[in-house]
Amino acid sequence: MRLASPEDSLALGARLAEVARPGDVIALSGPLGAGKTSIARGLLAALGLEEEAPSPSFAIVQPYAPPEVRFPVLHVDLYRIEDPEEAGELGLDDARHDSLLLVEWPERLSDHWWHDALWLSLELTPDGARALTAKVPAAWKDRWPQSLP
């Protein structure tokens, strides 16, 4: 999939909000500036967040809960995680039961954390667009085609 503009990234996030649910994990992978946070912002806005979602780079985990959004969401940025042992302190396992996890830089932790995640990888293209590829787990098979912009 090609995302030609930041608006396309926001729109993809909004479409994902239509099919995402608590217990899901959406992994957003790609270099700095690839649009991971834009997709997350589009999703959060579509779930009801009125202000622009900040990047969770420094907080690492930015929680959102009703009535701010339709259901609980944890926006996670693992960029600053250097030791996978640190992840245990974030409470991600517990949150997976009742929250949607939006995880930027998921490759900072081993694949077992994300075995059932919808994994979206972004690459910058020479013309400034983003190329998106998706690894779609069984739990998303019936939902993913419907979420394309």
Automatic annotation (TrEMBL):
What is the predominant subcellular site recorded for this chain? Answer: cytoplasm
* Family classification: Belongs to the TsaE family.
What is the primary gene name for this protein?
A: tsaE
Protein name (database record): tRNA threonylcarbamoyladenosine biosynthesis protein TsaE
Cellular component per GO, a single term: cytoplasm
Q: Which PANTHER family match?
A: TRNA THREONYLCARBAMOYLADENOSINE BIOSYNTHESIS PROTEIN TSAE
GO MF entries: ATP binding; metal ion binding; transferase activity
Highest taxon listed in the record's lineage: Bacteria
Q: Native species of this protein?
A: Sphingomonas naasensis
Task: Kindly state which keywords UniProt assigns to this record, in alphabetical order.
Answer: ATP-binding, Cytoplasm, Magnesium, Metal-binding, Nucleotide-binding, Transferase, tRNA processing
Single Gene Ontology BP annotation: tRNA threonylcarbamoyladenosine modification
Q: Where in the cell is it found?
A: Cytoplasm
